[in-house]
Amino acid sequence: MPHTARTSRRLALTSLALGLLTAAGLPAQAQQDSIVFTSWGGTTQAAQKKHWAVPFSAASGITVQQDGPTDYGKFKAMVESGNVNWDVVDVEADFAAKAAKDGLLEPIDYTVVPKSQLDPRFSGQYHVGSFYYAFVMAFNKDVYKGAAPANFSALFDTKAYPGKRTFYKWSAPGVLELALLADGVAADKLYPLDLDRAFKKLDAIKANIVWWTGGAQSQQLLASGEAPIGVFWNGRVHSVETSGQNVGVSWSQSLTASDVLVVPKGSKRKAQAMKFLAYAAGAKGQADFATETAYAPVNLGSKALMSPAAVKTLPDQFTKGQINLNMGWWAENRDVVAKRWYAWQAQ
Question: How far is CA 75 from CA 13, 198, 286, 346, in A?
Fold first, then answer.
């Protein structure tokens, strides 16, 4: 996603609000003993800091500075200029695939990172899995007191489910797929995406859409009832549920994907970065992060360290009707889709 619009997801939770720091201006010795970890902000990065960065620093003596939000345009500019200040970055899987092809990433050192412990679906030559998530449909029970919406078709039924709908604003896997599913396309026939059909379906409810740009905003829209139905990251809905808000979730047709961790080409602290990746992808760090966020771990040994109750909240426990987003297709078509996506929103 070279376009900065999509890459600014979760922008409402700015680095200032998080007290995030960059490596710029750090003394040379401090930079040698530290790395810069960049992620998306909010509760997700707070959990990454708590369960990965803090214990890693305690064990290794390597300080982990926090920066964010992830910005793909900035990522590319750093690498191309040779002035790379980020060392480990949390990105979406389709960006990682494209960035690897474009020569923007360092290969993962699997003599340091324990590859045999990792789910092979989420790790590869240039990336290590961060977490596994799902887009789910959620709704405000205080607004919709009758029958619960069953699947994505409810998003397009403004008579049965009146009010605003909320979707992820940026050109990303998810919204086009759900529009096609609601229009009757079979899950195994989604790709290549029929863009004309998807946009025609979305045209029908365009006036009713409120776009969320970050996870915190999506939670606020749902809990307040301003947009009482929509599609959200499962971990964000889990957080709303556990806060006591009266919301429901439909896992039917949930759309799954993963975030991954990468090292930008030209990082001056590759050795330290690989050690951090090994810790972040370790069984305990993944288990603790998953327990707090309800995003699934990528380490095959993590579930054994989690309580049965915590495991039941994970997206891989809701496999009936679940659909894996095709990140390979998105990696090849991201620029074409983005151009049309933003032009359509602006109309």
Answer: 19, 30, 25, 26
Per-residue pLDDT averaged across 326-347, rounded? 93
The per-residue b/e assignment along 280-310, b for 16 or more CB within 10 angstroms, e otherwise, is: bbbbbbbbbbbbbbbbbbbbeebbebbeeeb
Q: pLDDT band for 32, please (50, 70, 90 cuts).
A: low
* Among candidate residues 78, 87, 74, the one with its CA nearest the CA of residue 7: 74
- Six-digit token string for 13: 């939770």
Distance between CA 330 and CA 337 in Å, rounded? Answer: 8
What pTM does this model have?
Answer: 0.83
Query: Which CATH number is correct for 4-132+259-324, 3.40.50.720, 3.40.50.150, 3.30.230.10, 3.40.190.10?
Result: 3.40.190.10
What's at 249, amino acid-wise? Answer: V
The candidate with the shortest Cα–Cα distance to 84, out of 35, 15, 134, is: 35
Confidence (pLDDT) at 335: 87
List phi, psi (to 5°) of 127. -155, 155
Query: Which of 3.40.190.10, 3.30.1020.10, 3.30.70.20, 3.40.50.360 would CATH assign to domain 133-257?
Result: 3.40.190.10
* Sign of the alpha-carbon torsion through 100, 95, 299, 37: positive
Q: Which residue(s) pair with 38 in the sheet?
A: 67, 89
Contact 61, 227 (CB under 8 A): no
Tell me 37's DSSP state: E
Residue type, 109: D
CB 208 within 8 Å of CB 158: yes
* Distance between CA atoms of residues 133 and 216, nearest Å: 16
Say how many C-beta atoms besides its own lie within 10 A of residue 21's C-beta. Answer: 15
Taking alpha carbons only, the member of 15, 3, 74, 25 closest to residue 45 is 15
The span from the CA of 100 to the CA of 142, in Å, is 46
Distance CA 222, CA 141 (A): 10
